[in-house]
Write a structure and sequence with these properties.
about 130 residues; eight-stranded antiparallel beta sheet; about 20% helix
Length: about 130
């Protein structure tokens, strides 16, 4: 069910406007201040502290690499790694093309074009324009 919701969310997103060709998409979950998994795997969002699950990089709206959060640090997967292992790609529920559309989510925008989306299940999506 979680995977279906994630896939549905990402497929509903359409790129709004882009003066730049590089974007990052971070998926994570809200956690308490005492939660530790990977000391570098956290983001402070307007909704609270977020532990990063995946950090995905796009260039020209196409997936270039993915970082997965592990206790010992981030494990990097290239586009070739993901193309060769479709089960891995499906496990991360990542679109190979970046899409972003306004849908009925709790949304906060910061000054540097970073957009934070809060979902009903305490999941957070963070879109960063580079």
């Amino acid at each position: 069910m979680k995977t279906f919701i994630t896939i549905l969310m990402l497929s509903l997103f359409i790129l709004s406007c882009s003066s730049t060709n590089k974007r990052q998409l971070i998926k994570g979950e809200l956690v308490g201040e005492n939660y530790y998994y990977n000391q570098n795997g956290f983001v402070n969002a307007p909704f609270g502290r977020v532990t990063i699950k995946t950090h995905v990089y796009y260039t020209n709206q196409k997936l270039t690499k993915l970082l997965s959060n592990h206790p010992e640090g981030f494990l990097e997967y290239s586009l070739n790694d993901l193309k060769q292992d479709t089960l891995l790609l499906n496990h991360f529920s990542i679109d190979t093309v970046y899409n972003l559309k306004k849908i009925g989510l709790n949304k906060k925008i910061t000054r540097n074009d970073t957009i934070f989306y809060k979902l009903k299940n305490n999941s957070i999506l963070i879109s960063i324009k580079k």
